[in-house]
Structure formats: C-alpha cells, structure tokens
C-alpha cells in the first residue's frame, strides 16, 4: 500500500505541466514525477493525466507514492554544486545547492547532502536513522545555503542539543513581496500541518510555538530584502510566516507568490537563502560562524529588481 498525498494546485502553478507541478509541490525530482504519472499513480480531478497535461489552479492532484521495496538507505552519489566549506574531525559544513534534499526520504529519488558527502569520501556520524546519519537540521529542497553535518558522535549530540535549546544562530535572507509594516519585527505564531492541504504548513491555533525575527535590508518598488533570524525551526517556517503577513517569499508558488513577478525575475523557486550559521564547536566549545554567498539565480533576480 502506498502513501497517498492530496494537494490543491496553487495559482502560481496554473498552466504548469502536471509532472512539473508535482515535482515543485511535493519535492520530487522531475524524472520521479514523470514516472509516477506514467505509472498511473496520479489523478487530476479524478482523471488519469499524461505527463504533458496542464494543471489548473484549484484542481485536486492525488499522488500515490508506492511503498519502497526496501528500507531507505544511504547511497553515495555525485552531487554537482555541493560545496564543502569547512571540515574537521567533528563537523563538515556545506553550501547546499537548490534541488538537493538533506537526506533520503520516501518519494525522493534526487540528490541528497549526505549522499553527496558519502560520494566525496566523508565518514559522518552513525547516530540517527540509517538514511539520515549525521543530519541535525535540514533545508528545504528549494532553499539554498549553509548546513552543518555531524561527523563524530559527540558532535551529533552537541549540535542536536544546541538546536534544541536554541543557541544556534540561524540567519536567512529572503526577498519578499511588498513591504512589511513595521519594517523590523517579530512574528510569534504557531505552525502545524495545513488543515486542508497536507503538503503545506500553516499558522494554526494550537500548533507548535514558532518565532521569526526579521529586519529590512533593502526596499524595492515591488519587494523587500529581509534578514531573518529563526528562534525556532519549524518546517517551512519562514515561508509560512511571511505568507501569513501577506508578504510571501518571491517565487514561492506554494505559499501565494505572484507568478508574474516570479516570471519577470526569472525564478523557478522561492527566493530564500540560508545566509549564515553559527554554533559552539562540539570539540573546542568556541563559537564558529559560516556564511554563504547568494547562488547565481538569486543574485541574478536581485540585480534585475535593483535595475527596475
């Protein structure tokens, strides 16, 4: 029996090919999405589509993800764009490119951070489930930037505790639509699964406490560049909180971004980047901090909007 996921096509994906829409909404590779369509595992408004069928906003997609034949496991692989910026006996710090997951999961057949590290010959912590050893935090497939992976057992324990007690400095940059008022502020709103769309998260009464601090870095006619400090680390937290303010990340079709602005800036994903990560080194105890430059697609979009 497979895992069935039901999703409603957002306005930002209106007119998109069904395989592309599935890939963007559920985090699959385009190849995997096309395979699911070809295998008849997809229903679009109760009709089996072919992979070139175009979806309409508001349509219901039901995707059956076949149960894996074997347990998830780590597979060493080459991951283009995955850059190691620091490593020692305890940790390896990477700059994660777009389209890469942190670790293997059901339905994801694309590249992963730990698969890429294994492909480069790194030995990581054996703590955690077999398919996500050494992973102490994650970034969305469509979010780029700094990640730390534990190589030693003491690093795994130390970093998990630091994330738990919120002493890790997590700084993101986000280009959001419009101009938040006030320009610097705190969003304290609980997050949990969306009540009607199981691929999304939402501000929900009774959800998990979630706190996001933001400040304006640069304002443009149609958007604002923000620096964001996460106090908590919920799934899609920045994307959900900014959408709740009616200032979604530019390019974020899932959470209500304007498709016209997305297209004008040449984006195919949300403008969101894990800019800086700071923590106490598990070995020395000294504070260390690492920073990632904007990748080409985000830098290009920023230059375009500055030129306007």
What secondary-structure arrangement, pairings included, does this model have?
Elements lengths: L2 E6 L9 H9 L3 H9 L3 E3 L15 E6 L17 E5 L3 E6 L16 H7 L24 E7 L2 H12 L4 E9 L6 E5 L2 E3 L7 E3 L7 E9 L3 E8 L6 H8 L14 H6 L7 E9 L6 E5 L4 H12 L1
Parallel strand pairs: 6-13
Antiparallel strand pairs: 1-3, 2-3, 4-5, 5-6, 7-12, 7-13, 8-11, 9-10, 11-12, 13-14
Helix pairs in contact: 1-2
Number of helical elements? 7
Averaged pLDDT: 90
Number of E strands? 14
Strand content: 25-35%
Low-pLDDT residue intervals, each spanning 5 or more residues: none
Description:
There is one protein chain. The chain has helices at residues 18-26, 30-38, 113-119, 153-164, 237-244, 259-264, 296-307; strands at residues 3-8, 42-44, 60-65, 83-87, 91-96, 144-150, 169-177, 184-188, 191-193, 201-203, 211-219, 223-230, 272-280, 287-291. 41% of the residues are buried. By secondary structure, it is an alpha+beta fold. The protein is 20% helix and 27% strand. The model has no long low-confidence stretch (mean pLDDT 90). Strand 13 (272-280) and strand 14 (287-291) form a beta hairpin. Helix 1 (18-26) packs across helix 2 (30-38). The strands form three sheets. Strands 4, 5, 6, 7, 8, 11, 12, 13 and 14 form a nine-stranded mixed sheet that branches. The protein is built from seven helices and 14 strands.
């Amino acid at each position: 029996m497979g895992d069935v996921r039901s999703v409603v096509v957002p306005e930002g994906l209106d007119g998109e090919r069904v395989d592309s829409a599935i890939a963007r909404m559920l985090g699959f590779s385009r190849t995997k999405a096309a395979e699911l369509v070809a295998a008849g595992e997809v229903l679009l408004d109760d009709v089996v589509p072919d992979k070139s069928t175009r979806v309409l906003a508001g349509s219901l997609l039901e995707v059956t993800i076949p149960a894996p034949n074997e347990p998830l496991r780590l597979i060493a692989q080459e991951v283009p764009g995955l850059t190691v910026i620091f490593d020692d006996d305890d940790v390896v710090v990477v700059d994660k490119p777009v389209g890469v997951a942190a670790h293997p999961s059901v339905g994801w057949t694309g590249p992963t951070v730990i698969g890429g590290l294994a492909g480069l010959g790194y030995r990581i912590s054996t703590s955690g489930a077999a398919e996500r050893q050494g992973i102490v935090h994650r970034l969305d497939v469509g979010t780029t930037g700094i990640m730390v992976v534990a190589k030693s057992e003491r690093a795994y324990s130390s970093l998990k505790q630091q994330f738990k007690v919120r002493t890790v400095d997590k700084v993101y940059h986000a280009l959001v639509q419009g101009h938040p008022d006030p320009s610097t502020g705190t969003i304290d709103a609980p997050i949990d699964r969306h009540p009607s769309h199981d691929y999304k998260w939402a501000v929900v009464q009774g959800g998990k406490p979630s706190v996001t601090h933001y400040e304006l870095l640069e304002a443009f006619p149609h958007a604002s560049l923000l620096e964001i400090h996460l106090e908590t680390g919920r799934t899609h937290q920045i994307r959900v909180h900014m959408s709740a303010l009616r200032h979604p990340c530019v390019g974020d079709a899932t959470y209500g971004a304007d498709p016209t602005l997305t297209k004008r800036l040449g984006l195919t994903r949300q403008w969101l980047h894990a800019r800086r990560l700071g923590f106490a080194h598990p070995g020395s105890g000294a504070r260390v901090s690492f920073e990632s430059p904007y990748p080409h697609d985000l830098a290009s979009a920023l230059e375009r909007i500055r030129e306007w």
